[in-house]
Amino acid sequence: MKKKPEFHGSDLEKIAEYYHLNKDDIVLFGANVNPLGISKTVKAELAEHLDIISSYPDRNYTSLKKTIGSYCNADPHHIVVGNGSTELISLLISQRAPKKALVLGPTYSEYARELSLVGGTMEYYNLKESLDFALDISDFQKALTDDIDLVIICNPNNPTSSAISRDGMEQIIRSCKEHDIFVMIDETYVEFAPEGTQISSVPLVPQYDNFMVIRGVSKFFAAPGLRFGYGITSNEEFLQALLTHQNPWSLNTLGAYAGERMLKDQNYIYKTYHLIDSERTRLCKVLEDIEAQKPGTLKIYKPYANFILIRILKEGLTSFDVFEAAIHNNMMIRDCSSFESLEGEYVRFCIMMPEDNDRLMEIFQYL
């Protein structure tokens, strides 16, 4: 019996080689990156100012922090910048050094990897499919005990695309404070959330000092190679500990320059939001219509990020079958079987340009 290959979301070269495809022809529905690509305005400005690499960046990133503060409506003194959100996640976990962490799952595997490096134990509190992966706040609060040092939450969550409201998150943060628990909130996808949904926890920063929000520009601004991320917390002691242990000039000159201009590019921000929001609404309707025409084929979960999670319900059809149907048409979606704690047949795909989205919907039409 032929062994099923295992792929992860970033295995483009491996997938192209296995299926004998030209990797440049593959539409990356598994990467969760803005399909508009990097801002043309930022690209042009960056090209005209490449000479800045001859200078060190400002060690304190003063101008960049002011720009982040304006973008997020946050105090620049509460901000730390870094070499992508990944560096800040690693710094946070290494400095908190939790003996026991509670992770809201299923979620991004990097958290578990970083926690394993500090030698503590880790438990998952898994979102329930029976609740469409919406968090039961009161039940989650019951899982918060005095032996937990750190809680990790991705909001909106990957891969479920579910989200916790700001009011709900405040309840969690307040409960964690009572148990002396620090909270890491990864808001990588928060800028994609539908208008009117108050999800970001940044407005809570001045009120509570037991959490940090972490963000980056990889997904919304289509710049994963820039490696620019930032964290926001009002815990001055912890902020100083991060800065003390962080490498000097962690973010290079180009990253600081481009990052500042990305956050000021209102036209790009508007175009991105409009594209994702309109296509998200349209695609959900298409998928709902497919299920209505062929009951028992699939289940869609309300998405708050720029990607949609689908459960395959058709008997005998696996998530890998759907992945292969898409890849044979040069479209790479995410087979979610590698996500720990996500039991069942699930696939995830991000929102791309309308013509590419239409091609993907044809795959689901013929399930």
Number of strands: 13
Order of strands in the sheet with most strands: 2-8-7-6-5-3-4
Distance between the amino and carboxyl termini: 24 Å
State the order of secondary-structure elements, H for helix, E for strand. Answer: HEHHEHEHEHEHEEEHHHEEHEEEH
Classify the helix fraction into a percent range. 25-40%
Taking the sheet with the most strands, its summary is:
7 strands, mixed
Rg result? 21 Å
Query: What overall geometry do the principal axes of the alpha carbons give?
Result: globular
Strand content: 15-25%
Q: Helical segment tally?
A: 12
| Oligomeric nature of the chains | single chain
Low-confidence stretches: none
Mean pLDDT: 95
Alpha-beta content class: alpha/beta
Structural notes for this entry:
By secondary structure, the chain is an alpha/beta fold. The chain is 38% helix and 16% strand. It contains 12 helices and 13 strands. The strands form 3 sheets. Strands 2-8-7-6-5-3-4 form a 7-stranded mixed β-sheet, sandwiched between helices. It has a 4-stranded antiparallel β-sheet with strand order 9-10-13-12, covered by helices on one side. Strand 9 and strand 10 (307-312) form a beta hairpin. The two termini are 24 Å apart.
What descriptors fit this protein?
four-stranded antiparallel β-sheet; alpha/beta; 367 residues; seven-stranded mixed β-sheet
Briefly say what this structure is.
With 367 residues, the chain is α/β, with parallel strands linked by helices. It is built from 12 helices and 13 strands.
Task: Set out the fold topology.
Elements: H1 12-18, E1 27-28, H2 40-48, H3 62-72, E2 79-83, H4 84-96, E3 100-105, H5 110-117, E4 121-126, H6 137-142, E5 150-154, H7 166-178, E6 182-186, E7 211-216, E8 228-232, H8 236-245, H9 253-264, H10 266-293, E9 298-300, E10 307-312, H11 319-327, E11 331-332, E12 334-335, E13 346-350, H12 354-365
Parallel strand pairs: 1-11, 3-4, 3-5, 5-6, 6-7
Antiparallel strand pairs: 2-8, 7-8, 9-10, 10-13, 12-13
